[in-house]
Amino acid sequence: MADCFISFKNQIDGIALPQRFTFPFLYEPHPLARIASEELQAYIEDHQKSWSHNFGLEKDKDGEALGKMFGVLVVRNDSRKLGYLASFSGMLNGTMDVDRFVPAAYDDSFDVAYFHEQFDHFNSLSQQIDVQSNNPAFLKLQSELKEQQARINKLLNAQSTKHQFHRKKRKSYRNSIKPELTTQEWEALLSQHHQLQLNEKFLLREYEIYLCDKIAPLQEEFDKIKDAMQRLQDQRKQLSLAHQDWIFSHYNLLNINGDTKNVVAIFEEKQLGVPPSSTGDCAAPKLLQYAFKNGLTPIALAEFWWGKSSPSKVRKHKQFYPACRSKCEPILDHMLTGINVDPNPMLINPATGKRLDIIYEDDAIAIIDKPHDFLSVPGKNLKDSVLTRMQSRYPDATGPLLVHRLDMATSGILVMAKTKKDHQRIQEQFIHRTIHKKYIALLEGDVSNKEGIIELPLRVDLDNRPAQLVCYENGKPAITKYQVLELKNGKTRVEFIPITGRTHQLRVHAAHPKGLNASIVGDDLYGTASDRLHLHAVYIKFKHPRSGKLISFEIAPSF
Q1: Are the CB atoms for 323 and 303 separated by under 8 Å?
Q2: pLDDT tens-digit map of 264-317
Q3: 3-class SS at 319?
Q4: Regarding beta strands 535-543 and 411-417, do their DSSP bridges make them parallel or antiparallel, or are they unpaired?
Q5: Separation of alpha carbons 79 and 125, rounded Å
Q6: What is the rounded distance in angstroms from the CA atom of residue 287 to the CA atom of residue 295?
Q7: Residues with catalytic roles
Q8: Separation between Cα atoms, residue 412 and residue 557, nearest integer Å
Q9: Which of 125, 163, 545, 551 has the fewest CB within 10 Å, making it most exposed?
Q10: How far apart (Å, rounded) are the C-alpha atoms in residues 64 and 122?
Q11: 3-class DSSP state for residue 544?
Q12: Tens digits of per-residue pLDDT, 489-521?
């Protein structure tokens, strides 16, 4: 195994070591980890031109332009010398083994040649599926069949409409003549009309069969190709599952005590089911695995993004990011056993000592001034929230109380209804989007367009809850109006008017490259953490649930 220990080039004497190891899911990089990251970034800058991967930073480079997550682990060797290890998530240049970077976390029995053979087989199947699905003859056949099916539906709908007209006409006739008929004559007419209706249904079915028979040869030819493609897709799926099982069998992860656990066993113990694809291939597990294998003591960790942002996730060039939740959290829980790790800051209640001010109150509602870093409703680990405090303050209030929510990090106006009926009346205004809300945010950098509308559909990032990502396929519509108010000291003050109310909508719409491409100051999820998130719910206008009169409230931001 090549020695991946890298000595610091920069002077690090006088920099105190951290008292505890980095909590990997929410952290501010230690100075040593920052220096190591800067040195690694300089190395990547010098060598990326010789790599086949297209980070989106160079013009006219082949391949899809997409950045990649890199990581550094500051370590101490058995001579007590400080240095660092470097890694990347997944593969680089089509391989997991790249000079200077730690190898993958799999064990020594892992057959690299077999891995690439199966990987190539998988890609071959994918290419065959792509070739068939994009074959001009198949696409023409698909288009013709679609046109014929549309024609059949049109003819059947026309015939069905004609039958409906006949039924209405018969019904009208029955209603007009009923007073003139005897009971026997009426029953005979009903029987006759019922039989006519049955005849029409039969004729419609026969007509449908006749029309479908006309395009049967076209349908059979199409189904033959589709069946062949489905067989390839099934074969690819089975290969993928078998290959993933084989890969996971070699991922036996260490901790500092020398204890080994297979990645599948770790997920089973935590009742998380099958590990997601590529679990164990992220930067952090690879770094720790190499350190433990080689007797190196972990000191501090940092991960950063290099290159163009992902089309869905907000990723900034050279920005530090935490380890992912879905893949890394279960295995790092095992790998960090025995190491003194920083306490989880998400278990510390930031609302301790903060008060909730009521800026308006009557028999129906209360308007709350929520401070930043204060939960609207109880969380998984923290119970102190606006809701629990309001429940304590108004023990006789009924219903859900809070009409809407703000992100924990966001400050500003929250509306509370004291009865279930009042809550329902205001909630209906939210549903019908008749409530008018405004937010003020301070963004990093200059926003080129001074006003506009952002439309980027959002869904939860399953790998990194509660973060959201842009997804045109499965995301929910998210629309935001904005207007630039001021540019000062390199930061832009913006007014946001959300048309929809998705989780983290304003934060993602601000930070995403297809949004404003300028993250909100202090955004630890989509930008850079600071003293607070500079996002404030400044204004709201709605109809009072009892009087029906329009009322409005405004609370100026503290930033």
Answers
A1: yes
A2: 999 999 999 999 989 999 999 999 999 999 999 999 999 999 999 888 889 999
A3: coil
A4: parallel
A5: 50
A6: 12
A7: 407
A8: 7
A9: 551
A10: 19
A11: coil
A12: 999 999 999 999 999 999 999 999 999 999 999
